[in-house]
Fold this protein.
Amino acid sequence: MEPLIVLVLMPVAVGCACELLLRDARRASLAAGVATLLLLAASVQWHDATAGWHWVAAALVSPLPIALAVGTALFLYDRFGARY
């Protein structure tokens, strides 16, 4: 259950929060990507603090959560906030 939360649900929540707070696609997607990367690294280190390869694990799995967070922010911008 923890991998599902860390790799899928957390990035979607971060993407939603960034879009709702910033209301701009460029800033929200950048903030979502950076925040997801930092939260992913912190959660991997927190769950496995004694191992020596936790940064490698975070780097290897980071593209999926970052893509989910940025995709969620852009989806919400297009769905609710497109201003013409």
